[in-house]
Amino acid sequence: MFDQFLxxxxxxxxxxxxxxxxxxxxxxxxxxxxxxxxxxxxxxxxAWASMPWHIGIIIIxxxxxxxxxxxxxWSALVSVPVFLFSVEALGVLAAVLxxxxxxxxxxxxxxxxxxxxxxxxxxxxxxxxxxxxxSTGLAxxxxxxxxxxxxxxxxxxxxxxxxxxQPDASFVKEMPPFVKLHIASAWVLIMFFPFTRLxxxxxxxxxxxxxxxxxxxxxxxxxQVRFEEKIQFDNEKRLFLKAAVGxxxxxxxxxxxxxxxxxxxxxKQDLTNAEESHILSxxxxxxxxxxxxxxxxxxxxxxxxxxxxxxSELSSTRGKYFIDYQMRPALAFRDEGGLPxxxxxxxxxxxxxxxxxxxxxxxxxxxxxxxxFDIKTGQPSPGSPAKSPLPHLxxxxxxxxxxxxxxxxxxxxxxxxIGPSQTEKGLLFIVKRFS
Amino acid sequence: xxxxxxxxxxIIDFFSERIPFYNLNFEHMVTEKEVPVHRMSWxxxxxxxxxxxxxxxxxxxxxxxxxxxPTVSDAHASVxxxxxxxxxxxxxxxxxxxxxxCMILCLLVHLITSFAMKAFARPREITWISGAMLLMITFAFxxxxxxxxxxxxxxxxxxxxxxxxxxxxxxxxxxxxALPSYIKEIIQGEVSVGQATLSRFYALHVVILPLLxxxxxxxxxxxxxxxxxxxxxxxxxxxxxKFFPFFILKDFWLWGVVFLIVFILALCxxxxxxxxxxxxxxxxxxxxxxDGIKPEWYFYFVYYPLExxxxxxxxxxxxxxGAGIFFVPWIFKNTSRKVLSIIxxxxxxxxxxxxxxxxxxxxxxxxxx
Lengths: 435, 369
Description:
The complex is a heterodimer. By secondary structure, chain A is an alpha+beta fold.
């Protein structure tokens, strides 16, 4: 029965009071359509109270109006999780903001002597109802999560039924107490609306946005100067404050995004088994490669001759890389007679490693600065950045048993000779005494 | 006191003018400092931007240290690990490369504008010299950092540069001829570029150069604040704005915008996408040098002349320029801002043309590569 009164009787009383009261008040006392500003009496607290309250409540009201006037569209929107989270977060923020404003407004009414002189009982009542209203709304938002998603479906039909004059409060009666309180007190607010300062909501000076700016001029010149100085000072202060807030806020936003990315850098990596084994095998391969290089170095310190290749493996057009006694790269080719040509592959210009493929004219190319070298003479072709020839290396040919068959020193002097039958089996070595 | 001052007093006078310690107070350096507003005012932001990029380098560099391993067998693998497997690793590494290039770019703009605005004029010589030192340190950062990933282009480019040092020996007389190869060996640490080189470059890049840089930038900034902004243009400034809060706020605003841009660049565009991949394979000591070995773009201004002109001409030119930059305050003591800005334009035009069109010019002289 009481529910029936709160959610069916009260709404109609409230709406009747809103419509009749507003019209009658406008007819009888049009100039009382005002919030009775107290800015002249006290303006320091007011800024910190009125601004948050109005910003917060406008956001919240817009949300309520949107959700209940176009529930279909709204439901579609909030089905996107990001939108729902944003709306809920924004709503709670706005509620906290407006609650904060209201509380300061109330305190200010109580502690400022000049304000108390103009404060009516109704002012305090309105503030208390508003605080109650916002608090219950906040409680609903926090206790019964995702109101933006469930409210249009659960409460929309009730509100529509009121306006369609077919009141159906059955849904609302089953609601949790916070929701019921929130709705009932909303009707109370609406009922009080025409008799309080709240009427100023109907006289929002929207034309201020489009009219041309007005300049307030003071009648005394000294006051004018003082006023302008103050304005300038205020402007500078405001400019700095705005800039600082802007800079701070953007820095905060920026660092939020950046830190989000940076923070992950220090997390443990989630690697699949395949990735893990890929990384390990690669590491192992590189270690082996380094080990092989170290072995080469050791070998060159200790051995008198070092195996390069089987003579039969060598090609006359594509050189085989090997490392000489000084740990520098070198190339092994084979000439027309089947004998080896060993030539340094370290470019005499700036030390790049020369390529291994012969061009049509029997030359190899250093890719760094385009120097061509003839492998027979080692001479760079005219116009190459390299001026001095690539040196030849001495070599020795041995048979399988390790017997020396033939050798050549870096100058090209040969000792011994081999027949064509032996060239296929010959093993090519570089020799310490030639280097 | 006699009119003729003795040498000691002259030295005292010299330094008390250049290092005005009486300005070492909060009022002069912060609250009362004014920044002139004129057509070249934008140049006052270039130094700050360079500092921003240095700070980015510092932070991302320290981050990279968490995973990087400075050995010839592991360096390349660890860099690839950062790029492909560490969360946000590609971002940190990209930021480091992008911001290194940006830092050099800003530094060059800062150098050229300061020159054109005659910001080195008495009594600001120390500011200029410390700036020139920062330039050298930054190039050293670029050179040492380039080797650390131990990929083909890194090691081979380093080899080429080090070999060029040795090459200079051919042009020096007598006993001096051995000096360059001696220097090269000190830098290289062994017969060819190897583990010793990597360790040296690593120590330089992550410890010695940053410490040096921070010390010198401290001096540089202190000098800027002690002397206040140089006026920069010939005509007296009609307007000026307060350093604090207005200039500094704008400066931070610019930092925010620029950082956002570089951050997005690093997020979307790997710096290495400007090169072909084989250059980024692990260095292969036994293989041929791949095509396209080049230093970073900020060394083109010396790389392309080296490719085109005789070696000694370029070396001589660069030595003279490198040494000359420290003597700018005295060489151009009596030069007007107008002439200075013409020289600055020529320098800028040279840098821009050789950096953007170096390859084309090279092919014009030497035929297509």
